[in-house]
Amino acid sequence: MPTEFDDDDVESEEETRISDEEAIPDGSVGTNTFLPKPSVSSVQDFLRSSDTSESSVLQMEVREVLRETRVEYGNEPGVDRFISKLTKDIQGMPEQQVHGKDAAGFISALGQDPEEVSLKFKPPSKVTVIGSYALHTVARPEVVVDVAVEIPEDCLFKKAHLNYRYHSRRALYLSTIAKHLGSLSPLYSSCQITSMQDDPTRPTLTIHLPSMSEKSSNIDIANEVPSTSNEVPSTSGRNTSDSLPSTLGHKKRLKGVNNRKKDVETKVEPKPYKPSDYLSPSGFTVKVIPVISPSTFVVSKLSPEHNSVRWVTQLSSSLGSSKQKPKKNGPTVGVEEEKEESNVLPTPQYNTKVLQDMLYLPHAAYLSSALSSFPNLSDGILLLKTWARQRALLGKVDAFDGHTLTMLMVHLAKQGKMSPVMSPLQMLRVALHALSDTVSGLPKGLGMARDEHNSSAISAACSAHPPSVSVFRHHFDVVFVDFTGWLNLTAGMTKSALAQVVSAAKQTLQILQSSVDVEAAFAASLLFRSSPATMFDYHWRIRVPVADLEPGEHSSPKCGNRPYLRDVESKVEDLVKRALSDRATLVRVMAAKLLSGQGRSCLEAGLPVLEGEEGGNLHGSSSVHTLTVTVMANVDATLALRLADVGPAADDTKASAAFRAFWGAKSELRRFQDGKISEAVVWDCAPVDRHKIPDRIVQYAAGAHLPPGSSVACCSGHLDRVLTQRPPGSGSYGSEPCLDPNTGISAFRMMEAAVDKLGKQLRSVEGAALKVLGVQPISTAARQTCPYFPLPHPLAGGAAAAGALSGRLPRCLEPVEVLVQLEASGRWPDDPQAFSKTKAALGLQLAGLIETGFGYKTVASEDSVDVLMDGFAFRLLLYSTRDEAMLVKEQALMASSITRNVWEAPSLHPIPSMQLSNNPLVRSWHHGLVSSATGVNPSLAPAIRVAKRWVGTQMLSNHIAEEAVELLVVAAAASLSTSLPPPGSMLTGFMRFLELLSHHPWSTRPMVVDPEHQLSPQERRQISKTFDALRVDKHQKMPALFLCTSKDLESKHWTATNPTPDALQQLQARAFRTLRLLRPLIETGPHHSAAPHTTIAQQKRVREEDDEEERSLWMSAFCLPSDSGAMDVILHLRVDSLPQACRALPVARVGSLTSDQMGGAFIRLNDGKPGFNAPKSMKRSRLESAYQPVDLLTDIDRSPNPPPDKRARVFLRAFPEKLAEGRGPNQLVPELLVGFDPVPMLVEALKERFDHLAAFCADYHGGTHVGIKWKPAAFLPSFVQATTAHTALPCTLSLSAESKKISCVPNLVQVLSDMLEIGEGIIIDITCVA
């Protein structure tokens, strides 16, 4: 298509659209006057100039989103040509007689005899483009072009709207079109029958148009479409542009195209769309929708209180009860049917379906007229659609569609709540207010103003008045009446779907209106995409057996008003709501979707079936079928853990009877502490299982009120296995059974009691230079965020004072760090180094007083004092009022020591994180922040524990601090990051953490963690300025994970050096992989075999296999990827040298990878036998042959290795049993090691030597391996260094004239041998992956 028409003609087309329609509502412009663009933009610029800088940022962000969302209609000639050809092919169909056998299965499922159903096919009266494409409000990436094909009135008889007769003939009409198109051209080979809004009784024809970047599609269309026909033909005597915008063919832009045949035939490459970080483009989809004219049926017969399905005379009282079967009716209404009309029940859902088909074209004309008079409204519609799609509120069976949202925006504009000078963001706020306002918004019910012009066809055919809004409220959960007064636009929307919309709208409004970080607020509102796995806290898959229902009949409309499946879902949702009561803030059923993408002849087989249920019979019986209903709930994090549900008082006999009838034997009469006697339901469970109480409630309610055989599958407890551990000192996984899950909670309570006891004793110490004022634990165990709680040790403080010891006793103890606050003094030295030495002297004095006064074993060091008492090792960190001043002075001294020729202030220079992170004051600040967040939301602490364990299983514990993981989980729970309510379960908190880690743009935006809203707007702006300054400064190293708090505005405490950009990229990639694994497991569950099993033993065996498979799938998320790119070298560690080997997960063991999984080629530096040292040399292998160009390797020394050093035989995991039995406690206590972990020490030693060659990865919470990933430039020729000269292999003997240095590459054999020497006694084997 010639490009010379693009600019000027598009503008003239837009002018024509506006001038031909009504004036702007404010009356400032006449009906035939075009509102000049400069005047509107000048008003907008004036309004925006009065806003703050934050508002300007929001406007820029909105424009960028609209640019990525809007479709360039003028640059899509292939779509227009395709629609033109499709219109011509459909209108050129011949008249013919169609029999019911062409859709026999579909018609039979509707309760009719295919032999008695026929249709005299005639070409459609109109073929019109409707919907978003015609209105220019398509929101990418899902681009759908709706084409309405109007069925001629004489193809239907007067009362065809009764008993699904219209639906059968509608399906025949569509089937005829599909067969005709399939026989015409390969261009229609992608034709598929799909369901309109997942309604099985309303099939549509879907044709997928390939992406415009594919040349083949453009060539096919150009060759198929005649060059002289570029406009959509119309059979109604006038062009469709009279009632709709001229979108197809672009009438004014294509003026004179007939005289330019050569130009039209030229193949023009369309402009490819640019992918966005959050919105990706896709190809076009054309959807052919059969419709009827408004005068086809009497509209008053389709009002909500009327019945159109004569067999609907009673409602089923319970699930699985027998239903009345439809009578097979011919083309006329029988006498008995007329007599039964007075006894039938209303069918509002059925009537709405027919009305929707009748009002498609009037709605299209109404919206076209409205948008012509309000041109800026289209941007507001695009923004609202984007918001709804990101919140997963668009496209659901029982939720919004694009048409309803467009009608809502037009309704608000007609009411005067929007102005043409409003920005799109302001329009979005008005729409969100209407969605969330429970007084006058959609929750209360809306009714559009009558439009007589577009309702003239209905008024001419029916003189009755539309029903009142109260009639609609009686029959529908949500009411939004259109401009005709007959159709409820939200008829299929449920109360739970409305509650989800209201919650999302309120949350978004709150963020946009009150947030001080506008950029983060905008990203959370419009750029962050939610999924059910992260939106809801609990997910249940409830299987309901249904008797007298054939397989595949779940989508049948034989219940009359709507498919039977929707009734089952509604009843299950109501049951779960009543069972959870106030524990749940929202209960939502994920409506089952129908299988899409079925062939053109699928109507002959019957109605579409559900995804995942096509196997049909799960019980091996032809009379019983199982329907799966997915229920999700958001809960109050505190109320969800409640142990008792209190019912009505005993004297309220009616309410008590209803309570007992629902809960059955679970209900009991109880007297409470306040003296009242009430009905109650108590859920006795262990403390570690309290998060499963909602699961137990739903399981009990389903077993009591659903048909026998119903089952409930839960997923909230699948991650509990990650946090279980084996007895201390045990060997590899599976050698000993796991501990009771409640052991950790019991140990935590013992530790709390010991801390209280220690605090009282320290405050009572006499004779110290400075008195102890307070004691505060600051370790991860104290705030319940450690992956595994420290268990009491029999040698640490009197539990095994005397007598023989038995069993494997751990040798290493985890310290519980405690901050000891000393009284104020003015005699502290001002020098930071002298200050630390003085504190060390005070600690030595305090250790002596504790040991002599209370008899505890103490060990004093320069930094802390270790105390063994009551089974735990407490590490005392002294703190005084001078610590904060000394910290500031120490930072200033360190910053001034950095000599650089830059102009930035010293505050922009990072302080080494190791020094700041070890400062007791910094750790106290962090402990207070995390403890406050976990205290408000009990689900955060277990989510943090799972997140830390996940980081460890990915062998990245040394690349990100535990405190940074805690801050990320707290940030993910904040509404400013996700615009979602706080998580109410451990699983949801962990999923939010993964989503934040994998999707946040860390390179362009900092992450601010402020759960208590302590940061001022000035401080937030300072954080942004610091972040931007570090991005610009090429000489300054910026933290890859810029994580700020109220006490750390420059991300110096926990992420100054780690993670590196490469490590952060690995974290994001593995978080994304884990999300992809867990999302389907949460939302749909694993796909099990649906084959029938005859015996009970077979069913039991299959259930056990399915459960084990599901557990394996969940645990695979905590496994290192087995692809060849994960690690290059694996260092195998000696288990007896690892204090935390008992915490290794079975799926996270890298040693289980085979050579095939590791890439096919690997070598080992040891024979794998349990030795204590490895050889320092190895035979020439296939891996060495890669360095043959300069072969300077000498013969390998094959002499026997000397006996290993004593330190290489040391047992760190546990004392040998014979040693423990032969010695007493007094001899073993000095051998205890507090806070000693060889794995971090080994990683630091390897990093210090070989950091220039590789990145080292480890799991600090039970890992038995260390991974090595070579750096990209590791084996490139470089100049040799003195410290690594013995591991270098010269690749050339010529000396550089300038540097006089030898160019070398690392000798892999010698590098690995050096690693063995460094890890002597710990490393027992090395695996090299090719």
TrEMBL record:
- Biased composition (Polar residues) is annotated at 224-246
All residue ranges annotated as the Nrap protein domain in the record? 145-221, 268-372, 377-516, 533-706, 743-890, 938-1081, 1230-1325
Q: Where is this region: Disordered?
A: 1-36, 224-276, 316-345, 1085-1107
Gene Ontology MF term list: RNA binding
What are the Basic and acidic residues biased-composition ranges?
260-274
The highest taxon in the source lineage is Eukaryota
Q: Where is the composition biased (Acidic residues)?
A: 1-14
Q: Does the keyword Membrane apply?
A: no
Keyword terms of this UniProt record? Nucleus, RNA-binding
Q: What is the predominant subcellular site recorded for this chain?
A: nucleus
User: What is the protein name for this chain?
Assistant: Nucleolar protein 6
Organism of origin is Chlamydomonas eustigma
